[in-house]
Amino acid sequence: MSIYGEYIKSVIRTVPDWPQPGVNFRDITPLLQNSAAFRKLIDSFVHRYQEMELNAIAAIDARGFIIGAPVAYELGCSFVPVRKKGKLPFKTISETYTLEYGQAEVELHSDAFRENDRILIMDDLIATGGTMLAAAKLISRSGGHVVETATIIDLPDLGGAQKIRDAGYGVFSVCSFTEDE
């Protein structure tokens, strides 16, 4: 957890039974609306990665863009969107992954990275890990090297962070929530 982890966690709203009964939705909207909290969030990532040699931040559609762009700016590296299928206008490569209710697909421009670029993948949270792993596979296929994956929230009860670690990628989350919190 980052130095601001407990504070960041306290600003995130839990919405019970949304989008369906039994699900506790972790709403980052209050975090984004609170300028001091948002600054501390971005600072958490910048402080962690400022000493690493990164070429790009690859942020996952769409909430990953909210944190990935300012972090890329602060670190002086490029920003690359990992989009849902059909949203990128140029030649793409894609990766399909499994969801609870079916499959989804993410895409990346085929020329997004150079061979051996050092990439940080960012998203708002890790649940089952499917989207993050699909993004990591895309980046590896494109010649990039995933340095680490980073999120605001980890939901460890869903096992995604462990799946990502088991696949050989590092995981950093500013805070985490268990199901009973």
Automatic annotation (TrEMBL):
Entry superkingdom: Bacteria
Top-level EC class: transferase
Gene Ontology molecular function terms on file: adenine binding; adenine phosphoribosyltransferase activity; AMP binding
Keywords: Cytoplasm, Glycosyltransferase, Purine salvage, Transferase
EC nos: 2.4.2.7
Sections of the chain in a coiled coil: none
Signal peptide location: none
Phosphoribosyltransferase domain ranges (all copies): 40-156
Keyword Membrane part of the UniProt annotation: no
Protein name from the UniProt record: Adenine phosphoribosyltransferase
Involved pathway(s): Purine metabolism; AMP biosynthesis via salvage pathway; AMP from adenine: step 1/1
GO CC terms, sorted: cytoplasm
Gene that encodes the chain: apt
Annotated organism of origin: Litchfieldella anticariensis (strain DSM 16096 / CECT 5854 / CIP 108499 / LMG 22089 / FP35)
Compartmental location: Cytoplasm
